[in-house]
């Protein structure tokens, strides 16, 4: 099935149009080479190579081939809470949130269809039913799913306005000389690797990003961190920690393979999520237990764990 897609945005940085649009809208670069794609800047047709200036208005129209719909699959979910409006889960490591890049099965979206039926769709996108936010495939932890259109609209606004609170646990490489800090660096897509992001000091590039971190326990070569992100940029924690030479252990993109733990998977876990219930407006707090993959390394590295498995008494 072919679907017409239209996007418009105001350029927040200078640079080549196709690069900026691809980064801002997550549009495949191949789209800009299609003869059917229409590109306009300030109402006038433009080429994909046009150099954009800050403040210019861009319009893009193209045709996208999509599946008719996802197959529902009976995939077990670790449910932390559920009512008529929301579902809160502890996403397992290795589960992709929604389909893309050739992945159309085994995703959280497939699991939601299996749980609620083929017609479950709260956001007008049959490939992302109920999805309000996402975690990277190899990041585990708390996620909230909307069960109604009204809940989706309310939660989406909370995430876009950053009125919620998102906390993570990470096992980071290196020795920290201070116990806490703030990383406020803009994040931009890497010009040499479109699957990767990096930081920039250029205020006309990328998007602002703010991460606060605190060392919970320091081992000889690794540290357990509690982090809070105040923005929701792609790979934010992974990019920010890498930028201060403390990448997340097991990160295949932003860290070299670890000599001591070459088989380590990404040691990043979303352990706490705080938001307002979309209907009752009650401030709700959900925690996901720290996974076993963390504890298997703690004892070997002399990393103390004073909290309980549920992370109830951990905060930033």
Give the SSE layout:
Blueprint: E1 2-10, E2 15-16, H1 17-25, E3 38-41, E4 44-45, E5 51-52, E6 57-65, E7 79-82, E8 86-91, H2 108-116, E9 140-146, H3 149-161, E10 165-173, E11 180-184, E12 186-189, E13 197-200, E14 210-218, E15 222-229, H4 236-243, E16 268-276, E17 283-287, H5 292-301
Parallel strand pairs: 9-16
Antiparallel strand pairs: 1-6, 2-5, 3-4, 3-6, 7-8, 8-9, 10-15, 10-16, 11-14, 12-13, 14-15, 16-17
Give the tags:
single chain, 316 residues, alpha+beta, nine-stranded mixed β-sheet, four-stranded antiparallel β-sheet, globular
Your description of this structure?
This protein has five helices and 17 strands. It is of the alpha+beta class and 316 residues long. Strands 7, 8, 9, 10, 11, 14, 15, 16 and 17 form a nine-stranded mixed sheet that branches. The longest helix has 13 residues, at 149-161. The radius of gyration is 21 Å and the shape is globular.
């Amino acid at each position: 099935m072919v679907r017409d897609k239209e996007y418009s945005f105001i350029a927040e940085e200078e640079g080549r149009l196709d690069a900026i649009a691809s980064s801002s809208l997550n549009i495949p670069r191949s789209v800009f080479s299609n003869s059917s794609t229409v590109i306009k800047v300030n109402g006038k047709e433009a080429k994909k190579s046009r150099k954009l200036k800050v403040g210019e208005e861009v319009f893009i129209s193209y045709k996208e081939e999509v599946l008719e719909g996802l197959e529902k699959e009976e995939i077990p979910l670790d449910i932390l809470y559920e009512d008529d409006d929301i579902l809160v889960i502890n996403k397992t490591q290795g589960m992709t949130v929604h389909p893309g890049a050739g992945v159309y099965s085994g995703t959280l979206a497939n699991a939601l269809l299996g749980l609620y039926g083929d017609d479950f769709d709260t956001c007008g996108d049959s490939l992302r039913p109920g999805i309000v936010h996402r975690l990277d495939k190899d990041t585990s932890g708390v996620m909230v799913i909307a069960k109604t259109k009204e809940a989706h609209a309310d939660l989406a606004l909370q995430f876009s306005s950053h009125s919620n609170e998102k906390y993570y646990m990470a096992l980071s490489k290196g020795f920290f000389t201070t116990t806490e800090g703030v990383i406020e660096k803009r994040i931009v897509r890497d010009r040499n690797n479109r699957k990767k992001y990096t930081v920039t000091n250029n205020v006309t590039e990328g998007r602002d990003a703010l991460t606060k971190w605190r060392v919970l326990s320091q081992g000889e070569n690794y540290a357990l961190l509690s982090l809070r992100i105040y923005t929701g940029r792609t790979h934010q924690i992974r990019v920010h920690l890498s930028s201060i030479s403390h990448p997340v252990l097991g990160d295949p993109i932003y860290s070299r393979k670890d000599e001591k733990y070459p088989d380590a998977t990404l040691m990043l876990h979303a352990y706490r999520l705080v938001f307002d219930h979309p209907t009752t407006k009650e401030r709700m707090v959900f925690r996901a237990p720290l996974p076993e993959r963390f504890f298997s390394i703690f004892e070997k590295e002399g990393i103390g764990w004073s909290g309980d498995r549920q992370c109830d008494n951990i905060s930033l």
